[in-house]
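Hey, I'm writing a tutorial for new members on how sequence and structure tokens pair up, and I'd like a real worked example in the thread rather than a made-up one. If someone can provide the structure for the chain below, I'll link this post from the tutorial.
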Amino acid sequence: MGNGMLEFGFGEGDERVGQKSKRFKGKEGETYRVSFVWWPGLAEGKPDLTAPTPRFIGCRRLYIQGVGYFIDKGPEYVKLAGGAQSKMQAATIICVWPTNNKGVIDKGRFANGEYSVQSWIMSADKYRSVEARHQEFPLSGHDVTLACTDTQFQKMDISPCRESLFKMLLDKNPERAQAIIADAQAIASTLANDLAQDLTLDQIRDKMGRGGSSPVASGSVASNASGDFDNMLDDLVK
């Protein structure tokens, strides 16, 4: 449905009711391979990879323990958050592929259809790093590997891959691609709230009162270890 609502019935498409969106969090020492899957046309089930850029949302947000992240709407919001300056954050939707800890695709798990569609909330600096890779290696045709060097601060070394697994599935196995698209649509419907709640001052005060909380401030192209990667993936996605 195009208005962000999901249609379901008892036992029919209601698997996600009550579930929170999966959010991408890297672990230090691990490398991940991801495709960007939120493109114009996703809501209609036809992501347009000829578009110049994948889609993102963003806002300046503040944080209070017990309240969570919320949109900074001005000085009174900053005051409630203890005077902490808000930070610009961006969010998009990615598909995390099955790999070993070096970011190399696990062929067996990929052939079995394993994947995980997740939201990725990132700092402005990380967004600009992704943008820089996109300028040289468009994300419509290239995955990226994310080598996490710091779990707490989610520091990542970002490198482009030679191809996009999502694009390959769209081209060669549309049925598998549609499962990914359906998961991405579900995440898109709640992504804004995952990034930051849109709260009034009274709503924030109410949450603070119930919780008794105090304000808290808030490369190079990756090589394919398997050699002829294109041919390998051609076989797997048939």
